[in-house]
Write a structure and sequence with these properties.
Elements: H1 3-8, H2 27-38, E1 41-44, E2 53-56, H3 59-68, E3 73-75, H4 79-86, H5 95-105, H6 111-137, E4 142-143, H7 144-161, H8 164-172, H9 179-182, H10 188-196, H11 198-210, H12 218-224, H13 236-267, H14 269-282, H15 290-293, H16 297-309, E5 316-320, E6 324-326, E7 329-331, E8 336-339, H17 341-344, H18 364-369, H19 388-405, E9 406-410, E10 418-420, E11 424-426, E12 431-436
Parallel strand pairs: 2-8
Antiparallel strand pairs: 1-2, 3-5, 4-12, 5-8, 6-7, 9-12, 10-11
Helix pairs in contact: 6-7, 6-19, 7-13, 11-13, 12-13, 13-16, 13-19, 14-16, 14-19
Bound molecules: protoporphyrin IX containing FE.
Protoporphyrin IX containing FE binds next to helix 13 and helix 19.
C-alpha cells in the first residue's frame, strides 16, 4: 500500500499499543477497555499477526459481515489452533469444501431428526434425575459445573454413537471420551489425547460398514450423507473430522450455558418460580416430551437470557478476503475482525437494563422491537451454529425435567466469577444444594 493510499483510508481509532486478541482471560479485560474507550469500532495493531484487527460492537456491522457480505470473510485468527484439534471439520473449514460439508450435514439437524434425538436427551436426563434424587435425599451437595459437563457430554456422545458408546466403554475399561470432562486444559496434551480418540471412531465406522444394523444418530447420518453435485459420500477422514467437531462444538457450549442458567435462577427466585409454574402446568410426566418442549416459552426465555449474559462463545473472528467498507470505515483485505457477543449483548443502546437478568428481554414483542443482530450467541448468516435448535431442545428438556422436581440453591454465597477461555466458564465449580419440591 502506498503512503497516499494509507492516508486516504478511513480507519477507526484505537490504542497505540499493539495487541493480538485471543480467547483467553487476558484478552477479556482488554476487550472491555477497548469498547469503553473507542466505542463500536476499534482498530488494534498487531504484535505477531500480519494485519490489523478491528473489534466490532455494532449490530449493523455484524449483519454486514456475517450475512450481507459473508462471502468476503473467512474464519479468522485462533482457528489454526482448533484445526490441530479438529482437522478440517465444518467449524474451521472455508469455501467450497465447507459448503459441501455443511450441505451434507445440515439434514441431520432438521426438526424431524432432532425429534428422534430428543429420546436420547430424555434418557440421559432420566438417569441424571435418579442421581439427583439420591443426592437430595442424602442431603448431599451437587457439583453443578461438573454435572452439567458430564451430562452434556453424555448427550452429544449418545446422539453421535447411540449404544456403540457402551461398546467402547467396555472395550476401553472406561468411557474414552471422559478426557473432555476430566482434563480441563485445552493445551497440546489435550489435543494429543483427543486426537488419539479418532481411531475409536474409525473402528465404529468399520464395524458399522460390516453390519446391517441401522442407527438413529449423527454417525449414521454422516456415513449415509451424499453430496448432491458429485453423488459421493464423505471419506472416512471427513466423517471423523465432523464427528470430532460435533463433540467439541456441542459439549462445553451446552454445559456452560446450563451451569450459568441454574446459577442465575438461584439468584432470582421470582424467575425460578415462573419456571416452576410453567413446567408444572405444561409437562405431564417426569420428562418433557418433544411436543411439550415446544410449549415451554418461559423456559426458552430463561435460556436465551442466560446466553445473552453468558454467551459460551464470547469472542469469535473473521478475516477479510478483499477490501470492504463497513460502517463508513475501510476494511483492507487481510484485516482481522473480532466480535464479542458478551459485550454486544450488554450494549446500552440496544438493551434495557443490560446488566440485569430478565427473561422478559425475550418476550416475543421485545424481540421484534430489538435489532436482530444485538443477540448473536450462535453467530449469524450461513455460518450460524448448526446446533442452535438441538441445544435449545437439549437444555429445555434438562430444565423441564429438573425444575419439576428440585429447587437449586447456591451452597456458597460469594458471586461466581467468569473464566473467559474458548468457552465462557465459571472460575470455580458451582456447588448447589438440591431440595425436593
Ligand atoms: C449453547 C450451545 C451453543 C452455542 C452457544 C454455540 C455457539 C456457536 C457459535 C457462536 C458458532 C459460530 C462460530 C463462528 O462463526 O466462528 C457455532 C458454530 C458451530 N456450532 Fe455451535 N453452539 C452451541 C451448540 C452446538 C451444538 C450442540 C453443536 C453440535 C451438536 C454445535 C455445532 C456447531 C458447528 C458444527 C458449528 C460450525 C458451523 C459452520 O461453520 O458451518 N454447536 N456455534
Amino acid at each position: 500500500m502506498t503512503s497516499t493510499q494509507a492516508q486516504t483510508l478511513n480507519l477507526p481509532a484505537g490504542p497505540d499499543t499493539p495487541y493480538d486478541l485471543n480467547t483467553t482471560d487476558e484478552s477479556f479485560p482488554k476487550v472491555a477497555d477497548y469498547i469503553a474507550e473507542y466505542g463500536d469500532f476499534c482498530l488494534i495493531k498487531p504484535v505477531t499477526r500480519a494485519n490489523n484487527t478491528i473489534l466490532i460492537n455494532d449490530p449493523d456491522a455484524v449483519k454486514a459481515i456475517l450475512v450481507k457480505n459473508h462471502e468476503n470473510y473467512k474464519k479468522g485468527p485462533g482457528f489454526e489452533r482448533v484445526k490441530m484439534l479438529l482437522g478440517n471439520g465444518i467449524i474451521v473449514s472455508d469455501g467450497a469444501f465447507w459448503r459441501k460439508q455443511r450441505r451434507m450435514i445440515q439434514p441431520a439437524f432438521s426438526r424431524k431428526c432432532i425429534d428422534g434425538l430428543a429420546q436420547k436427551m430424555q434418557k440421559a436426563n432420566q438417569d441424571w434425575l435418579a442421581k439427583w434424587q439420591e443426592k437430595a435425599d442424602n442431603n448431599e451437595l451437587i457439583n453443578l459445573t461438573a454435572d452439567m459437563s458430564e451430562l452434556s457430554l453424555e448427550i452429544i456422545l449418545r446422539c453421535l454413537f447411540s449404544d456403540d458408546l457402551d461398546k467402547l466403554t467396555q472395550q476401553e475399561g472406561q468411557n474414552p471420551f471422559d478426557v473432555l470432562t476430566q482434563d480441563l486444559a485445552r493445551d497440546i496434551q489435550f489435543v494429543m489425547k483427543f486426537r488419539a480418540l479418532q481411531s475409536l471412531v474409525q473402528q465404529l465406522i468399520n464395524e458399522r460398514r460390516e453390519s446391517s444394523k441401522r442407527y438413529d444418530d449423527f454417525l449414521e447420518a454422516f456415513m449415509q450423507a451424499v453430496d448432491k453435485d458429485s453423488g459421493e459420500g464423505m471419506s472416512d477422514k471427513e466423517i471423523i473430522d465432523e464427528v470430532m467437531t460435533m463433540i467439541i462444538a456441542g459439549h462445553e457450549t451446552g454445559a456452560t450455558t446450563l451451569n450459568w442458567a441454574w446459577y442465575l435462577l438461584a439468584l432470582h427466585p421470582e424467575e425460578e418460580k415462573k419456571l416452576h409454574d410453567e413446567v408444572d402446568s405444561n409437562v405431564a410426566g417426569d420428562i418433557p416430551t418433544f411436543a411439550e418442549v415446544a410449549t415451554l416459552q418461559f423456559t426458552q426465555q430463561v435460556l436465551e437470557e442466560t446466553l445473552r449474559l453468558y454467551p459460551p462463545v464470547w469472542l469469535y473472528s473473521r478475516t477479510a478476503i478483499a477490501d470492504d467498507t463497513i460502517g463508513g470505515y475501510n476494511i483492507p483485505a487481510g484485516t482481522n475482525i473480532f466480535f464479542a457477543p458478551y459485550f454486544i449483548h450488554r450494549h446500552p443502546q440496544h438493551w434495557d437494563k443490560p446488566e440485569e437478568f430478565n427473561p422478559d428481554h425475550f418476550l416475543p414483542d421485545e424481540v421484534k422491537k430489538r435489532h436482530k443482530f444485538a443477540f448473536i450467541p450462535f453467530s449469524a448468516g450461513p455460518r450460524r451454529c448448526i446446533g442452535d435448535y438441538f441445544s435449545i431442545v437439549e437444555m429445555q428438556i434438562h430444565l423441564g425435567t429438573m425444575a419439576q422436581q428440585f429447587k437449586l440453591e447456591l451452597a456458597e454465597q460469594e458471586a461466581v466469577e467468569i473464566d473467559p477461555q474458548v468457552n465462557l466458564r465459571s472460575k470455580t465449580n458451582i456447588m448447589m444444594k438440591l431440595t425436593r419440591r
